[in-house]
Amino acid sequence: MRMSRKLLLLLTLLLLILLPVRAEEEQNLLTNGGFEALGADGLPTGWYTDAYINREGVTLYSVTDDAHSGENAVVVENVGLNDARFAQVVTVEPSSVYCLSGWIRADAIPDGGRGANLSISDVYVFSESVFDTMGGWKYVEMYGVTDSDQTRLTVFARVGGYSGESVGAAAFDDVNLTK
Asked: Average pLDDT, whole number, for the chain?
């Protein structure tokens, strides 16, 4: 009986020591991942827009108040075939595991491209492709390991992808990058 109490006390102390470390590791490394703060241009602060085809009228970027949570979500709408995205550069630690996650609402994006997804720049890896959520929100996530000398990466909330341009619109909200 005495041994089991000591073991229980030891396990409780270990749990209390490790909880703050776990909470710190789960901190969102993205700035404004819920897209609540908007700049003078009406788009979310901390994010920039980018596309494979940057001609005016091919892609529309906007903010909607029909969010998964909070007040805002961002929308990428490809009027023509494109790979367009909201992007953010993040500082990371080398040789570390990260989770990129978020919520997507896709509006009848035709099959044939990458659809709506979350991804990382310069790697051919994507979250699940989302084509139509029938008005609801779908949670997606992906995991990856940074290179041994990597200190930065760029997160994309996008419609389309490398060699997978798409037409259509999708909203993104509550995007997180956690170690």
From this structure: 90
pLDDT in tens, 90-133: 999 999 999 999 999 999 899 889 999 999 999 989 999 999 99
Identify whether the C-beta of residue 116 lies closer than 8 Å to the C-beta of residue 129: yes
Kindly give the pairing relationship between strand 97-107 and strand 166-178. antiparallel
pTM metric for this prediction: 0.85
Only one residue has tokens 């037409």, namely 167
- Residues constituting the chain: 179
Give the tens place of pLDDT for each residue, 14-47: 445 554 444 445 899 999 999 999 999 999 999 9
- Read off the DSSP letter of residue 73: E
Q: What is the DSSP letter of 14?
A: H
| Beta-ladder partners of 61 | 76
Amino acid symbol at 160: G
Edge-first strand listing for the sheet containing 48-51? 48-51, 84-91, 152-159, 116-120
Q: What is the 3-state secondary structure (H, E, C) of 90-148?
A: EECCCCCEEEEEEEEEEECCCECECCEEEEECCCCCECCCECCCCCCCEEEEEEEECCC
Give phi and psi for 11, each to the nearest 5: -65, -40
CA distance 93 to 146: 7
